[in-house]
């Protein structure tokens, strides 16, 4: 299916968020949002993906 | 003389009244040294797309090594939904219920959107967050935010990164006067240590700044300067300044003055 991952259109075979995070090689620490809504890490495995989903995977960065 | 009390942020107390940002330093090493020189106990951080910047993982380790309390922000958010989502993501990553709530209403001067800020604040407070809203220096807005349950407010001194100092001391003084029990932190727009000193002299509980230190010729030296300025300003507030007068009053006694009006 086609999804948008961190702003990039991507093809994936992952069926849920946890599988996608693993497929993308995410490094700790991070948090995930699906279609603009936060998904707790504990719910990533049970959150299924559908074609056209938009996923954001964010990590710590400098801030003011 | 006023009574000295430590900085209180949602029941947690701090000796330092300088909150420092972690962005814009020439190098990670200088950031660490500047944070140390500032003697800050609270450092601000944020979240961005992984791999969008090179510092990510290493940066977070550096921040953890400082041992400081972390204050995540929602910088760059333009809608309530964006800000609420980013706040929740920050809570998970940084394991804190503190959030510096930034919700930009105008792209040109990065002015906070007061209407959206109130809405997002209410949602996050109900969700258990301890919200530190970055807001304009509008008394009624500040009162509304406090009425929602905010124990800490962060009105701007000037637009982010401008270094202009306290553009509207009257507004800031009025907020301080009308809200004596709220922790007030001037956030953004400071350029030199005297700006921070002025805020503390007015009775503000602390200042939060980043660019003024990170953008200085020597960030480490400037961090130390801001630390001293904040301490001086607070000491002056505790000491209570003399009343301002419109006419001169001699400080040297006039009694016993020789040649007094003999001509």
Structure description:
Chain A: Pfam families: ThiS. Chain A: This is Thiamine biosynthesis protein ThiS. Chain A: It comes from Pseudoalteromonas amylolytica. Chain B: Keywords: Cytoplasm, Schiff base, Thiamine biosynthesis, Transferase. The complex is a heterodimer of chains A (64) and B (263). Chain A is mostly beta strands. Chain A has a single domain, classed as Roll (Ubiquitin-like (UB roll)), CATH 3.10.20.30. Chain A has one helix at residues 17-23; strands at 2-5, 8-11, 31-34, 37-39, 54-62. Chain A has a 5-stranded mixed β-sheet, with no helix packed on it. Chain B has one domain (7-239): TIM Barrel (Alpha-Beta Barrel), CATH 3.20.20. Chain B has helices at residues 28-38, 56-66, 80-94, 114-126, 139-148, 169-178, 193-201, 211-214, 219-239; strands spanning 7-9, 12-14, 18-21, 42-49, 69-72, 98-101, 104-106, 111-112, 130-135, 152-155, 183-187, 206-209. An 8-stranded parallel β-sheet of chain B has the order 5-4-3-12-11-10-9-6. In chain B, α1 runs parallel beside α2 (56-66) and α7 (193-201) packs parallel to α9. The mean pLDDT of chain B is 95. Classes of the chains: A mainly beta (64), B alpha/beta (263). Chains A and B meet through β3 and β5 of A and β4, α2 and α3 of B. β5 (54-62) of chain A pairs antiparallel with β4 (42-49) of chain B, so a sheet runs across the interface.
Name its key features.
heterodimer, A: mainly beta, Ubiquitin-like (UB roll), five-stranded mixed beta sheet, 1 helix, 11% helix, B: 263 residues, alpha/beta, TIM Barrel, eight-stranded parallel beta sheet, 19% strand, thiamine biosynthesis (chain B), EC 2.8.1.10 (chain B)
């Amino acid at each position: 299916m086609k999804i948008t991952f961190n702003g990039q259109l991507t093809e994936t075979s992952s069926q849920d968020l946890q599988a996608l995070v693993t497929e993308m090689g995410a490094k700790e620490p991070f948090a995930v949002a699906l279609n603009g809504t936060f998904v707790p890490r504990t719910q990533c495995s049970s959150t299924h993906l559908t074609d056209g989903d938009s996923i954001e995977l964010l990590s710590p960065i400098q801030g003011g | 003389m006023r009574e000295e009390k430590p900085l209180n942020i949602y029941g947690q107390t701090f000796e330092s009244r300088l909150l420092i940002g972690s962005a814009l330093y020439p190098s990670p090493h200088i950031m660490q040294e500047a944070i140390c020189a500032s003697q800050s106990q609270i450092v601000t951080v944020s979240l961005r797309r992984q791999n969008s910047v090179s510092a990510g993982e290493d940066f977070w380790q550096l921040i953890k090594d400082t041992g400081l309390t972390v204050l995540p922000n929602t910088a760059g958010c333009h809608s309530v939904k964006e800000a609420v989502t980013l706040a929740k993501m920050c809570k998970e990553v940084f394991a804190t219920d503190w959030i510096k709530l930034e919700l930009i209403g105008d792209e040109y001067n990065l002015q906070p959107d007061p209407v959206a800020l109130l809405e997002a604040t209410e949602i996050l407070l109900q969700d258990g967050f301890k919200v530190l809203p970055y807001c304009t220096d509008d008394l009624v807005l500040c009162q509304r935010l406090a009425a929602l349950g905010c124990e800490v407010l962060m009105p701007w001194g000037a637009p982010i990164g401008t270094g202009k100092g306290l553009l509207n001391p009257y507004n800031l003084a009025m907020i301080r006067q009308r809200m004596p029990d709220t922790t007030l932190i001037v956030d953004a727009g400071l350029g030199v240590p005297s700006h921070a000193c002025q805020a503390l002299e007015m009775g503000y509980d602390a200042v939060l700044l980043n660019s003024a230190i990170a953008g200085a010729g020597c960030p480490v030296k400037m961090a130390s300067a801001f630390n001293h300025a904040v301490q001086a300003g607070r000491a002056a507030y505790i000491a209570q300044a003399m009343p301002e007068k419109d006419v001169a009053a001699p400080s040297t006694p006039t009694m016993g003055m020789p040649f007094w009006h003999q001509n």
